[in-house]
Amino acid sequence: MLLDWNFVLDKNSVAAGIYVAWEKKIGEKIVPLFVPSNALGVYKSIPITRVIEWLTTLRPELRDRNAFLVKCLEEAVVDLTKKLGADMNQWQYGQASYHHVLIKHPLSNAVDEATRKKLEVGPLPRGGYGSTPGMTGNSDSQMSGASFRIVVDTKDWDLSMFTNTPGQSGNPDSPYYRNLFPMWANDQHFPVYFTKEKIKMSAAETLTLTPE
């Protein structure tokens, strides 16, 4: 499956899910080979670039690189079996049990279940990870990455494209509290108009403030 993979961390890809688990296992197992035991507590995470360097320079600390890689892959498969079940077809990378995005509210842990569902947004499956252009973090639940994205066309401002998440209102009762979340999670954008005519054409509602 990995040999036929296109190297894209697509949320629907099983091979992507296997690769990410494999890469994490490699990072976990390789650190003690290169880092002194009394310094292990300092290394909370190792950049993948450093791991690749260790793997490709054939350092003496890694005497049988190929056997090491195969062992890591076998352990990653065991971990995925425990995590996602024995059916490998259910190991797609993006899912609630694997790589996803759930936006938790600061009050989530202090309210009842009904209120929590009203405040939280998600989960939705995500692709990518911490080292891809669409950076979605290395944890199962995305905790970092761009929530706001805009591309501005300075020649024609009305062609500018935008997205935000989960919406542009902080009021959970507003229809605009979570309406942008599905588009954002699927890396889609929408026009953000500049000229008055375009703005009036696309307006869903207007609010007039009149001072007394």
Topology:
Blueprint: H1 14-34, H2 48-56, H3 65-84, E1 100-103, H4 113-119, E2 121-125, E3 149-151, E4 161-163, H5 181-185, E5 190-191, H6 196-202
Antiparallel strand pairs: 1-2, 3-4, 4-5
How many beta strands in the DSSP annotation?
5
Overall, the morphology is elongated
Estimated helix fraction:
25-40%
What is the overall pLDDT average? 93
Secondary-structure element string? HHHEHEEEHEH
Strand arrangement within the widest β-sheet reads: 3-4-5
Note the gap between the termini.
Answer: 69 Å
Query: Which parts are unreliable, with pLDDT below 50 for 5 consecutive residues or more?
Result: none
Helix tally equals 6
Oligomer: single chain
Biggest β-sheet description: 3 strands, antiparallel
Report the sheet-strand fraction: 5-15%
Query: What structural category do the secondary elements indicate?
Result: mainly alpha
* Rg calculated over all Cα atoms: 22 Å
Descriptive key words:
single chain; 3-stranded antiparallel sheet; two-stranded antiparallel sheet; 5 strands; 33% helix
Task: Provide a descriptive summary of the structure in words.
- The protein is built from 6 helices and 5 strands.
- The protein has helices at 14-34, 48-56, 65-84, 113-119, 181-185, 196-202, and strands at residues 100-103, 121-125, 149-151, 161-163, 190-191.
- The protein has a 3-stranded antiparallel β-sheet with strand order 3-4-5, with no helix packed on it. Strands 1-2 form a two-stranded antiparallel sheet.
